[in-house]
């Protein structure tokens, strides 16, 4: 099950994306957001690092929030700007 929730905090939009899976392997935690980090047999391990790069380009931030033993949660933080500020 995947859940998506959001919350406004001042001029920041927080988007919480969570699941009810096993969480992330503890051994991978220090490098989880770096390219080519994976615990799977299939895949390159670049998905989260691409997401981090995209969030940085949008002046946002990607954070991991999890119990680390079960359930994963990714928090996307977007800084909101006024239309005049974007010019």
UniProtKB/TrEMBL annotation:
Protein name: histidine kinase
GO MF term list: ATP binding; protein histidine kinase activity
Record GO biological process: phosphorelay signal transduction system
InterPro entries the record matches: HATPase_C_sf (IPR036890), HATPase_dom (IPR003594), His_kinase_dom (IPR005467), Sig_transdc_His_kin-like_C (IPR004358)
Catalytic activity: ATP + protein L-histidine = ADP + protein N-phospho-L-histidine
PANTHER family named among the record's database cross-references: SENSOR HISTIDINE KINASE, SENSORY HISTIDINE KINASE_PHOSPHATASE NTRB
Keyword Kinase listed: yes
Entry EC number(s): 2.7.13.3
Keywords in alphabetical order: ATP-binding, Kinase, Nucleotide-binding, Phosphoprotein, Transferase, Two-component regulatory system
Residue ranges of every copy of the Histidine kinase domain listed in the record: 1-82
């Amino acid at each position: 099950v995947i859940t998506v929730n959001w919350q406004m905090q001042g001029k920041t939009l927080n988007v919480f994306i969570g699941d009810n899976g096993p969480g992330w392997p503890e051994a991978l935690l220090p490098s989880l957001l770096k390219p080519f980090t994976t615990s799977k047999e299939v895949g390159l391990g670049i998905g989260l690092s691409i997401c981090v790069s995209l969030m940085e380009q949008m002046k946002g931030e990607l954070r991991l929030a999890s119990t680390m033993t079960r359930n994963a949660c990714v928090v996307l933080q977007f800084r909101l700007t006024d239309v005049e500020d974007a010019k």
